[in-house]
Amino acid sequence: MRELEDYIVEMENRNLEMGQSSEDLLTQLRLKENDLQLAAELGKALLEENETLKKRQDSIVEEYTKKLEFCVRLAPRHFPANEYEHGN
Fold first, then answer.
1. Range of 43's domain?
2. What keywords is this UniProt entry annotated with (predicted)?
3. Is 23 helix (H, G, I), strand (E, B) or coil?
């Protein structure tokens, strides 16, 4: 994410510079090409991070599902049904 913050700062600075000096078309095209490359790299990094987070979430869900199933199996032993009916 630090790269994204650096990119935003760079773009803000470049916009200020462009207003103060006139750049030729070739330089502008090179800058846009660089921007596109960086955007593609950032997009790829974000997709990879998203995939990592999804895998972690799936792992956590699986872990807690197993724990919940274990608790449900144990509950009848520790809390017989008649205790629920009588409010004890």
1. 2-86
2. Coiled coil
3. coil
Contacts of 14 (CB under 8 A, 6+ apart): 31
Provide the token pair at 13: 């600075």
In the DSSP assignment, the letter for residue 79 is S
For residue 35, with 0-12 CB atoms within 10 Å meaning exposed, 13-18 middle and 19 or more buried, which class applies?
middle
Q: What whole-number distance in Å separates Cα of residue 1 and Cα of residue 29?
A: 26
Rounded to 10 deg, the angle between the 25-78 and 2-20 helix axes is: 150
Query: Does 20 score more than 80 pLDDT?
Result: no
CA distances from residue 5 to 10, 16, 17, 49 in whole angstroms, order as listed: 9, 17, 19, 16
- Residue 38 burial (CB count, 10 A): 16
CB 18 within 8 A of CB 49: no
* Res. 21: pLDDT tops 60: no
